[in-house]
Amino acid sequence: MANKANGPAAKEGNGRGRGRRPADEVRADVLHTVGDLLLTEGIADLTFERVARASGVSKTTLYKWWPSKGALALDGYFHAVRETLAFPDTGDIRADLLTQLRAFAHVMTQTPGGRVLAELIGESQTDQDLATAYRKLYSSHRRRLAAERLHRAQELGQIRTDIDVQVLVDQLWGAVYHRLLIPDEPVTDDFIVALVNNLLDGIRQK
Predict the structure, then answer these.
(1) 71 with 129: CB under 8 angstroms?
(2) pTM given for the model
(3) Residue 1: what pLDDT?
């Protein structure tokens, strides 16, 4: 994660003076810049002009790849959190769920990432292109990773094979999103632990 001394804000106006580079390398540079800006400062001050200055990439190129600020922010956000929110597979589904949900909760509550994601979800309600990009780039990818890990747990006999893992995904991560978007109650570590325990141990009286 960038800081303001070494991050994109410190690079603005420096002019990188690079020769022609492969498009994939340029795109990765832009996404890294946008991700750093989002996780250090949030989305409010993100503009194409600022990203162009910080990354050394022309606004024309930026607009060619991303038609709107929302699309650019979503792509940069996904790039920034992808590694942090990777799903571990230690063979212990309880431990892995706790690790992933804790990492998710940290990004959502301890960095501007939570506010950024909430704003992107809000904008996607009226921006169909952003809504499509959100499902394709972020939510469907996150669901697939979680489902793959839960299917693995089923294969190991840690979760019943008749359970719909997509519903499990909604129960776990949906509960966190609910507290993030409707903040009546905080997203705490106790909440994360209770969420996993209630799901895996059941709530019926024994």
Answers:
(1) yes
(2) 0.79
(3) 44
